[in-house]
Automatic annotation (TrEMBL):
Domain of life according to the entry: Bacteria
Pfam families hit by this protein: TIG
Signal peptide: 1-34
Protein name (record): IPT/TIG domain-containing protein
Entries under SUPFAM superfamilies matching the protein: E set domains (SSF81296)
Length: 850
C-alpha cells in the first residue's frame, strides 16, 4: 500500500508549479497510524468530494448504522484524540459533513463540505472522521479510529503563475476523468460553458495544453501561451475543466477555477543554503509594472495563494526595490529543507497586506549539503559502520551528530522521532565534513529490501535542524554454503561456483577474496550462486572465502585448497632433442632447492601421476619412475623458472631394461608391410617400449613403439620382409657402442680409463660391466677422455669388459611435467615439507618421434 500511495502523492505534486516537482511532499511526515477499522473511499480529494465509509467493527456499543440517521463530522485535531460524545455539535474545531446518506447497515456516504478548503499556500490538510450511529439521543461512536482520515486537496494546485505553468486539478467525483483525455479551457470568462468548447462569445478562450490523466480524479494541464499581459500587468483568468475533450463532455469541476496569470520573475541565485542571511535578487521581465512599489514576497512549499495572507516565517524580509523591475530580499527563516534539495515557489504580491493579490511567481531551491555514504546498503541486523562524507563542512559547530533512520519519504525539518522511525543513533564526528555512523538494526518490510532515510541532525532537541540526509537500504545479509570445485591449482584461473543465499545479482555488486587474494571474473548467476576465477596462490589447504555485497559481508571457512602445479612453454618436442629450453610457471619456485642431489627438488617428466611411494619390493626401484628430467634450473622469480630438458636419453633405466637381450631363433615372426611382430615364447616386457630393435626384415632405426600383452610389439617402422617358414632372431635393447674398455674404480662415482676411451659425446649415455649390478649414467667426461663421473658408485675394481651403451630416447607419447621437492624413490610424501605438483591439463607435455 505504501508504494501505491507514494505514487499518487508524487503524481499530484508534479503539477504544483513549473519546475516544482514533489513540492506537495515538503511537509513534516504524518505519524504512522494503526490499522483502520473501516474502509474509507477515497481518502483524499477537494472539497465537495463524495466519500464512502464502510464499517468493519466499532469501539462503541453498536456495530453498524442499523437504525436512525448517521452523523459524520470532520476535525483537524490530533488523530489520536478520541472523538467527543455526540451532542449535535461536537465543537468549534469540528465541521459537519453534508449529504450524509445510509445505503446499507454498515455503509454511509457523505460530502466533504465546501468550507473545508486547503491550508495556506494551497497546502493539503488532513482531517479525522468522527462517525456516529444516529443523530438522536446519545448515539454510539462508529469507527472512532485514528486511521480514519481524509485529506482535503486544493481543486487547483496553484493560484497563479506565468504561461507554461503546470497545474494539477483535483475533481470531487470518483469518475471525473474515467473516460477519454481530460480537457480544460483557459479563459477570461467568469462562467464556464456547460460542455467543452474553445469558443466563447466575446471572451478569450484557449485550450489548455499538455492535458494528462493521472487517475480518475486527477489531471494536469499547462497554462497556454495565447494570453499576453498588458504592460506586464497580472491578469485574472479562469480554468474550466471537463471530463474529456469531446463536444458533449460535461464539467469535471463545478464552476471556474481562478488563476492569475503573472509575469515570470527570475531569482538570482536560483538556489542556496538555508538561513536568514542569504540575499536574493528578483527581476521581473522588462516592460512589466510588477514592481511599481516594493512587493510583498512570501515562500510557499506548494502553490502560490491568491492573496498574501499571513505568511509568518515564510515572508521574505528586507524587501528593497532597486530598479523598475528589480527588488532584493532576504531568504525567510521558515524556508527550511526537508531533504538535500527542496524547491519552493516564490510568490509576489502588490503589497504585504493579507488581501494584496498575486502579481508574479518565481522558483528558489533550498539546499543542504549532500553527503555520500560509504555504503548505501547493509544487512538488516545492523552493527556495521559507515561514513557520511560531504564536500561541505556540514558538521561545523556540531559536537555530536545524531542520525534518525526513518521509512518516511523525507526527513522532518527538525529533529523528530514521530512517524515510522527505526531508531536514533549518536554518530562520531570525524571532521567538519565527515561522520562515522554505526547502523542500527533496520527491520525489513515483507522480508524485502527496505529503503530508509538517514536524517542527520546537530542534536536531539526539537529545535535541532536537519543537516543532511541520504538514502540507505536495509536488506537480508548473504549466506554461503559451498565452493565447487573445492580445490584447484596454485596457478589460479580455475573457474569455481560459489553457492549461498541472498546474493546480489547486479553486475559489479560482488567482490570476494579466497585465501586473502581477490577472485576475478565474478559473474552473478542468481540470488543463490555466482561464478569466479581463482587467483594465483601459494600452496595452502582449507583457505577462507570472504564475499562482500551491498547487503553485507560473509565468510566461509575451509572453503578451498590450493594444490601445487606447474606449466611449461613449449609443451611439446621431438625425442631427438637433447636440449629443450622450457619456461616453467608455478608458485613457490624461489624456495625450492634445485642443487644437484636426488633428495633435492626436481622437475621430472613422468607417465601419468608420479608416485615415489610405489616401489618394487625392497629394491627401491620405482614402478613408475621419471622418464626424463628438466635440469639446469634457473629460478627467475617465485612464479617463474627456466630449465633444459633432454629427450634423447631416458633416465634411470634398471639393468634388465638397459642391457640388450636376444630372442630365440624361433621366437619372432615378421610380416612384410606390417608394424606388428609376434613372439610365441619369451614375449615382450613393458620396459621394451622406446628401445631399439634389430633383426632380419626390421628396418634400421626401428624402435618398439608399444606392446600388446606379452606376445606382440608394435614397431615404429613396418617390416620389409616375411620370415617365411623359419622365425627370425631379434635383438631388443641398447647395443654397445664400445666394449672391452679398461676402467679403474674406487667404489665412488669417479672412474679412470687407461686410454682415451670416452668423449664428451658420451655424457648422458649408460655404462655397464662386471660388478656394476645396475648401469650408471655418465654425468661428465674430462676433456682428455680419461676420467668420468657416474650417476652412482662404480665397483672398486678394474673390469676389462666395460661397455658404453647407446642412448635410449624418451618414447613418443603424452607425459606429465611434475615438480617434486624430494626426488628420492620411496620419499615420504606425508612429510609436511614434501611438495609435489598435481596432474593438470597445463602440465601435459607431448614427446613426438623425430
Amino acid at each position: 500500500m505504501r508504494k501505491s500511495r507514494n505514487k499518487t502523492r508524487l503524481a499530484y505534486a508534479a503539477g504544483l508549479s513549473t519546475g516544482v516537482v514533489g513540492a506537495a511532499l515538503l511537509v513534516a511526515p504524518t505519524p504512522a497510524l494503526a490499522a483502520a477499522l473501516a474502509t474509507i473511499t477515497p481518502t483524499s480529494g477537494p472539497a465537495t468530494t463524495t466519500v464512502t465509509i464502510t464499517s468493519s467493527s466499532t469501539t462503541g456499543t453498536t456495530t453498524s448504522w442499523a437504525t436512525g440517521t448517521a452523523a459524520v463530522f470532520l476535525t483537524t485535531t490530533n488523530p489520536s484524540t478520541a472523538c467527543p460524545t455526540y451532542s449535535g455539535n461536537p465543537g468549534a474545531t469540528y465541521t459537519a459533513a453534508t449529504n450524509v446518506t445510509k445505503s446499507a447497515a454498515d455503509t454511509v456516504s457523505f460530502t466533504v463540505p465546501a468550507g473545508l478548503n486547503p491550508g495556506a499556500g494551497n497546502a493539503p490538510v488532513t482531517y479525522k472522521i468522527c462517525a456516529y450511529s444516529d443523530v438522536a439521543g446519545t448515539p454510539a461512536k462508529v469507527n472512532d479510529d485514528p486511521a480514519n482520515l481524509f485529506t482535503v486537496l486544493p481543486s487547483l494546485s496553484t493560484s497563479g503563475g506565468p504561461t507554461g505553468t503546470t497545474v494539477t486539478v483535483k475533481a470531487p467525483a470518483a469518475d471525473a476523468f474515467s473516460t477519454g483525455t481530460p480537457a480544460a479551457i483557459y479563459t477570461n470568462a467568469t462562467t464556464c460553458p456547460v460542455n467543452y468548447t474553445t469558443t466563447i462569445t466575446d471572451k478569450v478562450a484557449y485550450a489548455a495544453t499538455g492535458a494528462t490523466k493521472v487517475d480518475n480524479t486527477t489531471a494536469t494541464f499547462n497554462i497556454p501561451s495565447g494570453v499576453t499581459l498588458t504592460s506586464g500587468t497580472p491578469q485574472a483568468m479562469n480554468l474550466c475543466v471537463y471530463k474529456n475533450n469531446t463536444g458533449s463532455s460535461g464539467a469535471a469541476v463545478a464552476g471556474p477555477l481562478a488563476f492569475t496569470q503573472t509575469p515570470g520573475v527570475t531569482s538570482n541565485p536560483t538556489s542556496g543554503a538555508p538561513g536568514a542571511a542569504n540575499t536574493i535578487t528578483f527581476t521581473a521581465p522588462s516592460g512589466t509594472t510588477s514592481f511599481a512599489t516594493a512587493p510583498g514576497i512570501r515562500f510557499s512549499a506548494t502553490g502560490c495563494p491568491a492573496t498574501y495572507g499571513t505568511p509568518g516565517t515564510l515572508a521574505v524580509t528586507n524587501v528593497t526595490k532597486t530598479g523598475t523591475t528589480t527588488v532584493t530580499g532576504v531568504l525567510p527563516a521558515g524556508a527550511n529543507p526537508t531533504n538535500v534539495a527542496t524547491p519552493y515557489n516564490v510568490c509576489f504580491y502588490a503589497g504585504s497586506s493579507s488581501g494584496d493579490t498575486l502579481i508574479g511567481t518565481s522558483l528558489y531551491t533550498i539546499n543542504i549539503p549532500s553527503v555520500q555514504l560509504s555504503s548505501t546498503v547493509g544487512t538488516a541486523a545492523g552493527g556495521n559502520g559507515i561514513t557520511a562524507t560531504s564536500t561541505a563542512a556540514y558538521l561545523s559547530g556540531v559536537t555530536t551528530p545524531y542520525v534518525v533512520f526513518t521509512k518516511e519519504e523525507r526527513c522532518p525539518i527538525f529533529y523528530s522521532t514521530t512517524g515510522t522511525v527505526a531508531t536514533t543513533v549518536a554518530s562520531r564526528k570525524l571532521s567538519n565534513n565527515r561522520a562515522a555512523i554505526t547502523v542500527p538494526a533496520l527491520p525489513l518490510t515483507n522480508a524485502a529490501a527496505t529503503d530508509y532515510q538517514a536524517c542527520i541532525y546537530g542534536g536531539t532537541s526539537g529545535t535541532s535542524t536537519l543537516l543532511s540526509a541520504a538514502t540507505y537500504t536495509s536488506a537480508t545479509a548473504p549466506t554461503l554454503s559451498a565452493v565447487t570445485p573445492a580445490a584447484g591449482t596454485v596457478l589460479g584461473g580455475t573457474e569455481i561456483t560459489v553457492s549461498g543465499n541472498y546474493l546480489t545479482t547486479a553486475p559489479g555488486s560482488i567482490t570476494a577474496t579466497l585465501g586473502g587474494l581477490p577472485l576475478t571474473d565474478i559473474t552473478p548467476i542468481n540470488a543463490t550462486s555466482f561464478t569466479a576465477r581463482t587467483p594465483m596462490h601459494a600452496k595452502e589447504s582449507n583457505v577462507i572465502l570472504t564475499v562482500n555485497t551491498p547487503n553485507g559481508s560473509v565468510s566461509l571457512p575451509a572453503a578451498y585448497s590450493f594444490v601445487p602445479a606447474i606449466e611449461a612453454t613449449p609443451n611439446t618436442a621431438p625425442n631427438t632433442a637433447v636440449a629443450v629450453n622450457l619456461a616453467i610457471r608455478g608458485v613457490g619456485l624461489a624456495s625450492a632447492n634445485f642443487t644437484p642431489g636426488v633428495a633435492n627438488s626436481h622437475i621430472y617428466l613422468a607417465r601419468g601421476e608420479y608416485d615415489p611411494t610405489e616401489v618394487v619390493g625392497s629394491s627401491g626401484t620405482m614402478v613408475n619412475p621419471a622418464i626424463a628430467e628438466c635440469g639446469d634450473v634457473l629460478v627467475i622469480s617465485d612464479n617463474e623458472a627456466a630449465c633444459v630438458l633432454n629427450l634423447a636419453q631416458r633416465l634411470n633405466i634398471p639393468a634388465a631394461n638397459v642391457a640388450s637381450r636376444q630372442t630365440a631363433a624361433t621366437d619372432v615372426d615378421t610380416v612384410t608391410g606390417s608394424k606388428v611382430i609376434t613372439s610365441a615364447v619369451t614375449g615382450f616386457l613393458p620396459s621394451d617400449i622406446g628401445k631399439p630393435i634389430t633383426g632380419t626384415g626390421i628396418p634400421a632405426g626401428t624402435i618398439v613403439r608399444d606392446i600388446v600383452g606379452t606376445t606382440q610389439a608394435i614397431l615404429s617402422k613396418a617390416a620389409t620382409a616375411t620370415s617365411g617358414s623359419s622365425d627370425i632372431q631379434a635383438t631388443i635393447g641398447s647395443a654397445a657402442l664400445r666394449s672391452s674398455l679398461t676402467m679403474t674404480g674406487t667404489g665412488t662415482p669417479s672412474i679412470t680409463f687407461s686410454g682415451t676411451d670416452l668423449t664428451v659425446a658420451d655424457v648422458g649415455r649408460w655404462l655397464t660391466g662386471t660388478g656394476f649390478g645396475a648401469p650408471r649414467q655418465i654425468l661428465s667426461v674430462d676433456p682428455a677422455g680419461h676420467t668420468a663421473a657416474l650417476s652412482g658408485n662404480a665397483p672398486n675394481a678394474s673390469p676389462t669388459d666395460v661397455s658404453v651403451l647407446a642412448n635410449v630416447p624418451v618414447p613418443a607419447g603424452a607425459y606429465t611435467l611434475t615438480f617434486v621437492s624430494n626426488g628420492s624413490p620411496a620419499a615420504n610424501t606425508g612429510d609436511v615439507n614434501y611438495s609435489q605438483s598435481v596432474v593438470t591439463p597445463g602440465s601435459t607435455f607431448t614427446v613426438t618421434n623425430s
